[in-house]
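Discussion board: Methods & Data

I've been asked by a reviewer to show the raw model output for two of the constructs in my manuscript, not just the figures. I'm not sure how much to include, so I'm pasting the format here to get opinions. Each protein appears as its amino acid sequence followed by a line of discrete structure tokens. Is this the kind of thing reviewers expect to see in a supplement, or should I convert it first? Here is construct A:
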Amino acid sequence: MAILSYSEITQKKIIDFNNEPYEVLSSRVFRMQMRKPVNQTKLRHLVSGKVIENSFHQNETAKEAEIENMEAAFLYTNRGESWFCEQGNPKNRFSFPENEVYEKVKWLVQNAHVTVLLYNERPVTISIPIKVELTVTKAPPTIKGDTASGGTKQVTLASGAVVSTPLFINEGDVLRINTDTGEYVERVSKA
């Protein structure tokens, strides 16, 4: 486990803070007038997703968290829990409370590939690709009219998520979706 000085606590690093795993979202080292430098950070808890702010002073250090990755498959969500199994070992099943992983699970279909982050050999959260391809299962019919200004409609994807898309999208089309923003990126194939 590496020990990081205050200035090495930078964006995308995962640190042990108060014996919990936190991802550094942003960091800024600055000096206020005659004082010593300070690293002002925003940290996101890997399990709860709660964001906090903390300032690390010149004499402070932090341990880099030992995070391991495990390849897994999404199985289903039932009774408030989202279930997964280890890739190649379907007997190794585990779950997360649905409210902790909902923002990621809503873009997954059954047997979708995910990466599970392990902290102290226990699953803490999942990581999904930034862009996923999903089939449109429900799309209202397009009504001819003035579409010069663009226009959007709400469609339902195979995962159950609802997104805004251009009017030309129909049922059966395969769309690429940005999972960070929840926005339509492009149509991959036409039905």
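Construct B, same format:
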Amino acid sequence: MPKTPQDAPPSPLPELPIPAPVTSPPRDRRPHPPGRRDPCLLAAALFAAYTTLSAARYRHLATRSWDLGIFEQAVRSYAHLQAPVVDLKGPGFNVLGDHFSPILALLAPVYRLFPSPLTLLIAQAALFAVSTVPVTRAAAGLLGRRCGLALGIAYGLSWGIQRAVDFDFHEICFAVPLIAFSLEAVLARRWRSALLWALPLMLIKEDLGLTVAAIALLVALRSRRSSPRTVLYALALAALGVAATLVTLTVVIPAFNTTGGYDYWSKVDSDFSPFDGADVKLRTILWLLLPTSGLLALRSPLLVVTLPTLGWRLLSSDDHYWGTDWHYSAVLMPVVSLALVDAIVHTRVSSRPSLRSYAHHLPATVAGAALALTTTLPLSALTLPTTYDTPDSVVHIERALDRIPDGATVEAGIGPSSRLTSRCRVFWIGNTQGVTPDYIVLDSTSKWIDAPQRYARQLHPDTRYTIADAAYGYVVLRRGT
């Protein structure tokens, strides 16, 4: 019997395409290049070391100069939207009449939140630490990870940086990272970035306009074949840098100075010979080039950027500028370190096998030298247990200083001034220029004063001062009624 349509098996349904599951785009699972984080990790470690050293010195009342108090007064004025008056230089003295450093205003917002000299010290530590990033990154990019890390360590522990960290606070802490980033861009042939990083140096200190000019001339020299337009921009910036220095020295600073001049012209003596102190100057140059670069930095044109700073220092009649102490060499450290990187790059292709071998081993050598020298430099204090303690003497001295009320006028020297500038109006001892302060604080730990009240009477003959408190050589005198 034939099958009816009802008895016929059903025809198979057509197969529909099964849509592919919706997935997110595949992620790039390639590992990050090795050593990518090295510069930042090194900077973080150095920031911790610099901050610990600075805070420990402050906690131990080991302030070395009046600069910390001076800069705090300037930043405090900026933080309250006032002219940068620094009473330590004289009542009502505008610090722009001393050095042209308007870049200090950048610290004002942070200082307004944390009004303390420690704010300045921590900011300086951060700026120095940040400068290791471009040095390490440039070295790693051109020489490899291990060489980059070695040269970053050598730079971060270099004697010039350590001396600057040990010297309380100074405005040049802004210049160090700017120079480092600018010269990193030079090595990477990023000409515009190099010029832009150098430009703000003119707002840090009056002499750094010449450093801007040196960097701009370096850019013009290196870009002359690849970018003629860059040469024009670089030459224009070089002219601007020189003009900025001249205008600042002859017009801007005198306009803010009560004498109508530039106080530091006195450091240039017409009877002074550049050969005076030649032994000290030669040692400084050797310190600058030998442990930091094994003299190989001399093979790089980047070293020309050191000439403006070295020039005014070695031609000055003030012997404080000649040596390796204080903060004066900090701006030279990134220049020498990156000049070494540049020199190694070119020396590696030298036809002389001995020179190639020397350049190959030099990164590890300068890193070892920096580590060895650190045992005699300020960061070695981090290995001492006493660094992390607060001496009993400081506790009692601070208790005596706490007797001075906020807002009081105080005449003080180096030791107590930086403890008071955040909350009092502080004058330099012997330079109140007719202002009779509410308090006088004398630091006689060296026993240079045997009769504090008699000395106070010499300072202010018409005013009677009584001893309000004394501790470990510090004497707080209060004006009588």
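Answer (T.O., handling editor elsewhere):
This is acceptable in a supplement if you add a one-line summary per construct. For B, something like: The longest strand covers residues 465-471.
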